[in-house]
Amino acid sequence: MTNKGALAGITVLDLSRLLPGPFCSTILADHGARVIAIEDRRFASEAGINAAVYRNKEHMTLNLKTETGRKIFLKMAQQADIILEGFRPGVTQRLGVDYDAVSMINPKIIYCSITGYGQTGPYRNTAGHDVNYLSVAGVLDLIGVKDGSPCIPGIQIADMAGGALYAVIGVLTALHARKTTGRGQYIDISMTDGSFSLLTLVLSLTRLTGRPVTRSDSFLSHRYACYHVYETADHRYLSVGAVENRFWKNLCDYFGVPEYTPLQYDDSRRQEIFDFMERRFRQKTLAQWEQELENMDICWGPVRTVDEALTSPLFKAREMVIEIHDKKGAVSTGLGIPVKLSDTPGSVRTPPPEFGENTKDILMSFGYSEENIKEWEASGVI
Q: pTM of the predicted model, to two decimals?
């Protein structure tokens, strides 16, 4: 029997757009859930901006601002397990498709809202994007060069780690709880809350050292030579993460400076050790260091470009770089599935659909006729 994934039999209606919600539902789809992405046709011009998060999904158009569109959605919701949405607070209530409306006809529904600042609190109606959520959460202030301005990271930490991943956790937790209670529930995910929760170790370090963690000047952010990024002779970089003294000792012994081993966190000699390490790492290219340090037990790594990571033997071996074949036979590079289950592994089964591609098939699977569909196409419902 072919494995269909751990979430086979679960139906998700995804009203969200852009990145946080669609990334959440991609994870669910990768593990076998039927995910139906629902968007208004007015967003068709934006299709393809982030097509990768629509793999393994079906896509349909539906105008929830019409009474017919709302009724169609509610009929679909009767047979769904999970609903995801990413509107501002209050929008789903105005549309008549909020948790209260759906749970009245489907008490088992798990309804997850992903917003910037949550459904409650003084920021609930404030617009924002990833950089704003990181800013408000205190995370952005920790990213960047000491005495310089905060730097916007090259990936969307709040959207993905603060929002999407916590939404997945919430949904799976609620699915488990439903087995006991027989009821679904509402999940309020704030990307700012999620980002704020990433400060766990920062608070612990503050209590431990008695001083606040600041940008590029903390135990795990450039304050000491054992946890730093070094430039090489060819102006590339490598990272050293020799936190434990045994790893630091191996590096010091390699460079012939065993006297630095006990001075790992000595603030009075900190700059001296930095200067030494920087001089030494600038003496060879990154490729040379990869050969030199290949078997060294010191916790280090080359700073790869994205292109280099995509061709890395590591990610090929881990099946994290995959080929995705679209319906026209074109091949593109995709990212694999990081959660590797032994008995019910996830899989990439279908490429991202075209905008609205599955509208007719989806509606027919929920009992609507071709005549209904033609009528709704003409009237702008779908």
A: 0.94
- Of these residues, 14, 30, 159, 193, which one is catalytic? 159
**Rounded CA separation 254/312 (Å):** 27
Residue 51 burial class via C-beta count within 10 angstroms: exposed 0-12, middle 13-18, buried 19 and up:
middle
pLDDT at 20 > cutoff 70: yes
- What phi and psi values does residue 324 have, to the nearest 5 degrees? -115, 125
Here the tokens at position 280 are: 């030494």
pLDDT of residue 92: 98
Q: Annotated catalytic, 188?
A: no
The answer to whether 348 and 337 have CB atoms below 8 angstroms apart is yes
CB 188 within 8 A of CB 166: no
Kindly report the number of other CB atoms within 10 A of residue 316's CB atom: 13
Average pLDDT score over residue span 91-95: 97
- Is 130 considered catalytic here? no
**Counting runs of H as helices and runs of E as strands, what totals does the chain give?**
16, 11
Whole-angstrom distance, CA of residue 112 vs CA of residue 188: 6
**Contact yes or no for 273/227 (Cβ under 8 A):** no
Strands 227-231 and 186-190: unpaired
Going by their DSSP bridges, the two strands 11-14 and 82-85 should be labelled as: parallel
What pLDDT does 1 receive? 42
DSSP, residue by residue, 230-270: EE-TTS-EEEEE--SHHHHHHHHHHTT-GGGGGGTT-GGGH
pLDDT tens readout for residues 181-218: 999 999 999 999 999 999 999 999 999 889 999 999 99
pLDDT of residue 345 exceeding 50: yes
- First-to-last alpha carbon distance for the chain, in angstroms, is 37
Please, which residues have CB within 8 angstroms of residue 83's CB and are 6 or more apart in sequence?
12, 13, 14, 15, 77, 99, 102, 109, 110, 111, 112
* Catalytic choice (129, 222, 253, 326): 129
Q: 260: Cβ–Cβ under 8 A, 6 or more apart, which residues?
A: 252, 269, 273, 276
